[in-house]
Task: inverse folding
């Protein structure tokens, strides 16, 4: 890692920041500058809530991509139930309506002493406060042979975009009777129920278009989120189609053979028509590079202020952080981001602040017209975040209730993405 | 109607006298008979109540299961390979349904 010193930044603080980075909204010298790195759900929410509040701030959002596609609901796209465009959002409203300076660039480093973010283009961004929402990266060499080239043949499709489209294309061109092998990573990973939702929705697609096909789920775990709900649905909707093998049976996925299109476990080799390998995960690259992640690969934070405990002047939200009982989900990221934005606003204005209330709410599809939901509240407790109240769907709910939940999920998506991207 | 899927893992070949590991898994809900559905009716018990492994004609592993056994019962056990022959695996479900797998073991 290249270390940046004050000297290298000499004369760059303050006035040298590119004028192009300034928001359009009328500004005064007194305004505090907040840099938000990462334009996913966590980052976009922090930026929006800070910019729309009463605190006098100039918010800059740094995100290399001009468009963001949501991982959540992308399983519906894989099953042909939603267009990719409907999952894709831009930053125009954040820019126009909220005056956020959206910079399409990558942050390469942060100098927390000089309070400067260095961008790939060479531009420097000075700040009073910085928030990172770095998302996830994949652990290297967790599965032998699964490298960048292998991902083009056995997609992970765990960051929405080209990978998701590739997997959809492979599922579409797969012959009826093929085996779709889905490799599920060890905890913790982005969106705990999502691999099993993927199995469910791909099964619904197979049932409609390739009814002789099979799905084999090779898990790194012995149990999983919502297992009773999923296995009940798999038996009711897709009898004999989905087979789930726990870690103790296979001994875990050790390697892939891209040429043979096979997945190799400690005990057996499974041949796949289509393989979806979701690797073990860790906090995003910038967090790793800046020493914000601990030995677990994830970032410890203060559960009230969302400041890194390893580098207290840097705030972190979203999938990259260790958030106690909160799962790595878009809704969690959004909730943490709001709490973090309120903390920043109170710090910048000197106003008092209260303990955050944190939430997660998700809808998970078992079939196109059957979804289960959870709604959980959390609070900071003894240095971490603990569940306060939980409401989760049960196995024997009526089909009417589930159909209603599937309908509500569509409304949830629209309201939620509007909350994030404006 | 549930469709439990049984699966076993056994080596194809073994040296005479070798101790081999066997894994047997069946995807099964293991409905305990202690729950009620949304209309208040008791959901009848339906569990895998017995699992048996035969090596040739001899029962080498057998277990009776009760309500407290979790979903997807999984067994791992060891067997001394003495002679080439067939391994039969049988799971019995409440109500009389039977699920079975067989495996030929070559002992050299």
Result:
């Amino acid at each position: 890692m290249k270390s940046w010193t004050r000297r290298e930044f000499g004369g760059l603080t303050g006035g040298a920041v590119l004028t192009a980075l300034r928001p359009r909204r009328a500004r005064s010298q007194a305004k505090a500058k907040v840099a938000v790195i990462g334009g996913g759900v966590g980052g976009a929410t922090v930026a929006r809530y800070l910019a729309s509040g009463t605190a006098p701030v100039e918010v800059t959002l740094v995100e290399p991509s001009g468009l963001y596609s949501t991982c959540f609901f992308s399983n519906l796209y894989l099953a042909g139930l939603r267009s990719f465009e409907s999952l894709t959002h831009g930053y125009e409203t954040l820019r126009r309506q909220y005056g956020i300076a959206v910079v399409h660039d990558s942050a390469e480093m942060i100098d927390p002493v000089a309070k400067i973010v260095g961008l790939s283009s060479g531009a420097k961004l000075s700040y009073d406060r910085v928030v990172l929402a770095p998302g996830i990266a994949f652990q290297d060499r967790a599965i032998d042979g699964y490298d960048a080239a292998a991902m083009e043949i056995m997609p992970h499709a765990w960051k929405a975009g080209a990978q998701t489209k590739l997997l959809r294309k492979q599922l579409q061109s797969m012959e009826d009777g093929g085996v779709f092998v889905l490799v599920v990573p060890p905890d913790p990973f982005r969106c705990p129920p999502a691999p099993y939702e993927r199995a469910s929705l791909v099964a619904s697609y197979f049932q409609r278009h390739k009814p002789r096909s099979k799905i084999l789920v090779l898990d790194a775990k012995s149990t999983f989120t919502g297992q009773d709900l999923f296995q009940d649905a798999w038996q009711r909707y897709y009898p004999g189609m989905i087979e789930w093998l726990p870690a103790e049976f296979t001994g875990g996925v050790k390697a892939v053979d891209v040429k043979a299109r096979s997945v190799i476990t400690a005990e057996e080799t499974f041949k796949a028509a289509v393989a979806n390998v979701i690797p073990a995960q860790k906090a995003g690259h910038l967090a790793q590079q800046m020493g914000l992640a601990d030995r677990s690969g994830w970032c410890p934070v203060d559960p009230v202020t969302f400041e890194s405990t390893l580098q207290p002047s840097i705030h972190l939200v979203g999938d990259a952080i260790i958030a106690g009982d909160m799962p790595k989900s878009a809704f969690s990221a959004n909730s943490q981001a709001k709490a973090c934005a309120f903390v920043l606003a109170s710090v910048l204005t000197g106003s008092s602040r209260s303990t955050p209330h944190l939430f997660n709410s998700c809808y998970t599809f078992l079939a196109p017209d059957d979804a289960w939901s959870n709604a959980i509240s959390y609070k900071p407790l003894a240095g971490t975040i603990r569940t306060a109240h939980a409401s989760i769907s049960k196995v024997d709910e009526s089909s009417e209730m589930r159909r209603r939940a599937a309908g509500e999920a569509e409304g949830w998506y629209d309201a939620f993405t509007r909350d994030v991207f404006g | 109607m549930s469709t439990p899927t049984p699966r076993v893992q056994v080596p194809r070949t073994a040296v005479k006298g070798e101790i081999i590991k066997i894994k047997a898994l069946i995807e099964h809900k293991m409905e305990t008979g202690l729950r009620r559905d949304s209309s208040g009716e008791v959901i009848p018990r339906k569990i895998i109540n017995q699992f048996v492994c035969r090596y040739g004609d001899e029962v080498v592993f057998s277990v009776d299961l009760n309500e407290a056994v979790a979903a997807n019962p999984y067994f791992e056990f060891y067997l001394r390979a003495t002679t080439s022959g067939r391994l039969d695996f049988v799971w019995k479900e409440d109500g009389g349904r039977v699920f079975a797998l067989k495996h030929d073991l070559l002992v050299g």
